[in-house]
Write a structure and sequence with these properties.
It is a single chain. The chain is mainly alpha-helical. The protein has a single domain, classed as Up-down Bundle (Rhopdopsin 7-helix transmembrane proteins). The protein is 76% helix and 5% strand. It contains 10 helices and 2 strands; from the N terminus they run ααααααββαααα. A two-stranded antiparallel ribbon has the order 1-2. The protein has helices spanning 5-29, 34-37, 39-55, 60-76, 78-89, 93-118, 143-158, 163-182, 187-198, 202-220, and strands at residues 123-128, 131-136.
């Protein structure tokens, strides 16, 4: 996350509490939203890892495991979790199949990126415009890899069945371009922060399901 160790810890705590509340609501009102409800929890863990990166940034030997873990979460979780979360929440069989297929592609991409990270000679770290810039020391993957990553992490959100998830997806896509324009060296740290904050929109999708549930009960009465 941007700015400081304290800011990362604060964001981690806030997202963790919000994620816990979302998971509880999803379990009570709509279990199909459970994987989406986990998004803030994952973002919370990610911010705590970055807090450890901040804490150890002047000691590369001690900080390398945290740098690897932060990069691993950023590179490998979202291309898999996002499509499968969309498939789990989807009611239309055809779109559910599309999201599951995309999740399979995400698994392949994840294996590839893990292999690249495993062969890296470490991860350099610098502070650029108050943000942490991670530089894995490996041969850069082809540009199509970045494009595929973006498609897998954004498309299932934008075209989700629920309007609040679609809004979240549009916000994630917009902040991707903003992060690249504003702070390219630290773009995925900045993007992860923005996506983490916007993930709170998911609460509206869960609340929508809750309202629908109560409306159905009223009709039955």
């Amino acid at each position: 996350m941007c700015y400081s160790l304290e800011a990362s810890i604060t964001a981690g705590l806030g997202l963790g509490l919000a994620g816990y509340g979302m998971v509880c609501k999803a379990l009570r009102h709509d279990r199909r939203m459970l994987l989406f409800a986990l998004f803030p929890v994952v973002f919370s863990a990610h911010q705590f890892v970055e807090a450890a990166v901040w804490l150890t940034r002047n000691d590369p030997a001690v900080g390398q495991p945290f740098r690897y873990l932060y990069t691993l979460i950023a590179f490998t979780v979202w291309p898999v979790l996002t499509p499968f979360a969309a498939a789990y929440a989807e009611s239309d069989p055809e779109r559910r199949r599309v999201w599951r297929n995309m999740g399979g592609v995400g698994l392949i991409l994840t294996v590839y990126l893990i292999a690249k990270l495993a062969g890296a000679d470490g991860i350099d770290l610098s502070v650029y415009r108050h943000s942490l810039a991670y530089d894995p020391l490996f041969e850069r993957p082809p540009l199509v890899t970045d494009f595929l990553y973006l498609v897998l992490t954004v498309t299932p959100l934008i075209f989700a069945e629920r309007r609040a998830i679609s809004v979240f997806g549009v916000a994630v896509l917009a902040t991707f371009f903003m992060a690249l324009a504003a702070n390219r060296p630290a773009w995925y740290s900045v993007w992860c922060l923005a996506a983490a904050l916007f993930s709170l929109i998911i609460a509206l999708a869960i609340e929508e399901a809750r309202s629908s549930h109560y409306d159905e009960l009223e009709i039955q009465r």
